[in-house]
Amino acid sequence: MVNAHPLVRLETLALIAVGGFAGSNLRFFAMGLVPDVPSIVLVNAVGSAVLAFLVYEADYADRLTARTRLVFTTGVLSSLTTYSTFALQTALAASPLALGGIVAANYGLGLAGVLVGRFLARRLGVPRPTGGETT
Amino acid sequence: MSVLLLEGIDVLGRTAVTIDPSPAHVVGTGGAIGAVLRYVTTQRVSERLSSERVPLATVAVNVIGSFVLGLVVFAGAGGSTLRLVGTGICGSFTTFSSFSVETVRLYERGDRVPAVATAAVTLACSLAAIGLAWLLVAATAL
């Protein structure tokens, strides 16, 4: 990828841009439906779960192409989830309790989402004979 | 004919002046820019500071993005500017999903201390960056 033709890099950037457009719009949509703090927790937990599924899917079944992965992982999911808004909400929290709650909800449910995604990837994918964990 | 043409330009000109892009378009455009910037930054950081034990690139984009969002919000930006730069660019530039997946992968690989440290350092540095942004805006406003 590093020494790829400039036009290949252009395609990479275009795929990421399209994914970023979709991902950020989904987050904006969620922020319109649910209040600010819960909406960020929601997109971060769901985005972490789906990204974990795609990343661990590569370890087990590996059915997706590199382009599909690029659009969804670097494009949609990384743009759907956000750290900056979460950090600002934490910084502007009204009380220490609210601050702790925002951090616990995002970190806790984000990490729980990763474990759910990993579990699903293991259930749906038959482990490859070479490499990967054998649990 | 020329009158028609002029009228056409006039109509086009008027619509161009009064155009009010929908919030979703503004956020999406910012999101596309933020995602590409994140990819480019991640590539650059990974090339120069490759680290097996700490996902430095993700830490970097999250701290930088939090700083810029702090600047935009404390500077009092609203409406389309906040949607483009805040929700769009900074929102997409920073990522929670890569952060959480990389942290779990570090942890399950046995690098437990780096995993917990990454999570703690990202939060501490992002909050410090937002504090710095607040100080900068407060200082320039005086």
UniProtKB/TrEMBL annotation, chain A:
It holds the Pfam family CRCB. It catalyses: fluoride(in) = fluoride(out). It is a multi-pass membrane protein. One of its GO terms (biological process) is cellular detoxification of fluoride. GO terms for cellular component: plasma membrane. Keywords: Cell membrane, Ion channel, Ion transport, Membrane, Transmembrane, Transmembrane helix, Transport. The chain crosses the membrane at residues 12-34, 40-58, 70-92, 98-121. GO terms for molecular function: fluoride channel activity. InterPro entries: FluC (IPR003691). It is found in: Cell membrane. Belongs to the fluoride channel Fluc/FEX (TC 1.A.43) family. Fluoride-specific ion channel. Important for reducing fluoride concentration in the cell, thus reducing its toxicity. This is Fluoride-specific ion channel FluC. It comes from Natrinema gari JCM 14663.
From TrEMBL, chain B:
It is found in: Cell membrane. The chain crosses the membrane at residues 54-75, 113-137. GO terms for biological process: cellular detoxification of fluoride. InterPro entries: FluC. Its main location: membrane. It catalyses: fluoride(in) = fluoride(out). Na(+) is not transported, but it plays an essential structural role and its presence is essential for fluoride channel function. It is a multi-pass membrane protein. GO terms for cellular component: plasma membrane. Na(+) binds at residues 91, 94. GO terms for molecular function: fluoride channel activity; metal ion binding. Keywords: Cell membrane, Ion channel, Ion transport, Membrane, Metal-binding, Sodium, Transmembrane, Transmembrane helix, Transport. The keyword Transmembrane applies. Belongs to the fluoride channel Fluc/FEX (TC 1.A.43) family. Fluoride-specific ion channel. Important for reducing fluoride concentration in the cell, thus reducing its toxicity. This is Fluoride-specific ion channel FluC. It comes from Natrinema gari JCM 14663. The gene is fluC.
